[in-house]
Amino acid sequence: MDKKKVLEALNLDLEHEMAAIVRYLHHSFIVTGPNRGPLVQMFRTQATDSMQHAIKLGEKICALGGHPSVKIQEVYEPGEQTIEQMLEEDLEMEKNHLQMYEKQLGLVSDSTALKLMIEQIIVEETAHVEELEMYLGPRRAVKV
């Protein structure tokens, strides 16, 4: 295992999860309409899930002798958004995170603990993608 590459990858993951926390909380603040209550709860649950991922990543970075990044990937803030636009934005972000984690599996293939941690995050990111697709309706569902 190339420890330097793994630490760089984990820090990038951490920066993406921190941005997800900000994005989801922001969406929970600005969502309006008759479905506001359930959407606020969903966005805040997603923010909490991203925070849990960030905690796992930060702890693992330290356990490997690295230093967790305090950077946050840029969060696009277009101003006024419809609920559908917010959900589309979140879906795109979650799909990008999922691809990022899947690519990193090769970096940690010789470390069972790291591999399992990344695989668990992949399972959770997949659930996020599926949930957002269900919010957006059947036309966006991934064919299995």
- CATH first level: which class? Mainly Alpha
Largest sheet: none
- Show unreliable segments: none
What is the H/E order?
Answer: HHHH
Helix content: over 70%
Backbone CA Rg: 16 Å
Helix and strand content put the structural class at mainly alpha
Number of domains: 1
Brief overview, please?
The protein has 144 residues and is mostly helical. The chain has 4 helices and no strands. It has a single domain, classed as Ferritin, core subunit, four-helix bundle (Ferritin, Up-down Bundle).
Write the layout of secondary structure elements.
Elements: H1 3-30, H2 36-63, H3 83-104, H4 112-136
Helix pairs in contact: 1-2, 1-3, 2-4, 3-4
Question: What would you note in describing this structure?
Answer:
With about 140 residues, the protein is mainly α. The chain has one domain: Ferritin, core subunit, four-helix bundle (Ferritin, Up-down Bundle), CATH 1.20.1260.10. The protein is built from four helices and no strands. It has helices spanning about 5-30, 35-65, 85-105, 110-135. Helix 1 (about 5-30) runs antiparallel to helix 3. About 25% of the residues are buried.
